[in-house]
Amino acid sequence: SLNTQGTARHLAVSSNWERDQGAFESIVDMSRVRSITVFGEWEPFFLSDKMRLLRVLDLEDTTGLVNHHLEHIGKLLHLRYLSLRGCESICHLPDTLGNLRQLDTLDIRGTSIVMLPQTIIKLQKLQHLHAGFPTKGNYLCTRHLLHTYGFNQLDACTSLCCGAATPCIMMDKDYGGVVLPGGARKLKSLHTIRGVHVAYGDAVIQEIGRLSGLRKLGVMGINEKNDVKFCSAISNLSRLESLSVQSDKGCLDDITSPPKNLRSLKLEGRLGVLPEWIKKLQNLVKLKLSFTTSSQVEQDAAMEVLGHLPNLSILRLSGCLFKAGELHFQKDAFRSIVVFDVEGLGGIKSVNFDQGAMPELEQLKVTDACKRGGIGFFGLDILPSIKEVLLSVHFKMDRAGTELEREARLKEQFRTQLARNPKKPILKME
């Protein structure tokens, strides 16, 4: 507001504030600002060379921000936090990013950036790097940049000619991700790397394996050519607490010494066999398995391994194609599970809970159980700690009649069993 004193250090621009440059410059003392958070439409005058003390620049989901608006960002020498998350029109970071020697966190998730500038290896204090593509198949061309994102001609040509967009065409963008430059091993302060693509060359995997301080790692592009080297790299990361892997026909069996402190594990892609080393993860708390339909899993062997992980409290199974028709949870298995999330299980006709199975389960979430003829759930009435069941159903309009009938039967099946449960859990429909 115009009544705001000019000594404010922390600035938030709301989406409904009229973008008035004169008012902005009269309200804000640029030299004092320490943090800026912008909601809604971006305007270039929000950022000034005078903001020498700026530490936080949060532009998440800002619209209208394009590459050339960031060309002078390297002058913000005290910047510690930079978020461009959700700014899809950003596909290039300037080389001056390397001047931000105090930068602690860089969040570029949901942008169109596929390659990081070589100068990023100068950021010796960088601890958290979050990346990843907004959509599947992010192909860019000059016309797309000009008309969809409102790029000027310079932005469009720079993005394409300087190689910022070329990898979108070169890469298999099923999984998205960014490419780390050579020398990434020098970023010794890194604790978090998310959304890195490693399919094109083994050097980046070897560089990651030398980042001994990593706590959280998310990679994509693991395949038959690089899986052994990746497993070797993981064996070197003894401090790792969270690991997310998206694989294309890769195998992760060669991890000889899995990180003993691993608490969160996410495996996606064509992994037909559950890696043997998972049974060694005695501290694992959260596990998500999301296999493609081209990969079949032996559920009895998998459930035997997972069921005896002593601290596993959150289990999510998504898109897994099992070989037999039943998913059976036996007595004394999964004793620490609190949240169980099931989505789109292929090959499964029924899910059965024995007396004494999942004794701590409080929340059960079931998605797309009406597809492929439907899945039956049995034993819900004997789950001793269940509090809530979330039933989410999707169906195509051309087959709405059939799938609506399945939905009604499934809902009645759940309601009947839960009514018999002494805990009187809540059934919610989505």
TrEMBL record:
SUPFAM superfamilies: L domain-like
Entry-linked InterPro entries: LRR_dom_sf, LRR_R13L4/SHOC2-like
Keyword GTP-binding (UniProt): no
Record bears the keyword Ligase: no
Pfam families xref list: LRR_14
Domain Disease resistance R13L4/SHOC-2-like LRR residues, every copy: 33-133, 177-426
Domain of life according to the entry: Eukaryota
Keyword terms of this UniProt record: Repeat
PANTHER family, per the entry: LEUCINE-RICH REPEAT-CONTAINING PROTEIN 57 (PTHR47186), OS02G0478300 PROTEIN (PTHR47186:SF57)
UniProt-recorded name of the protein: Disease resistance R13L4/SHOC-2-like LRR domain-containing protein
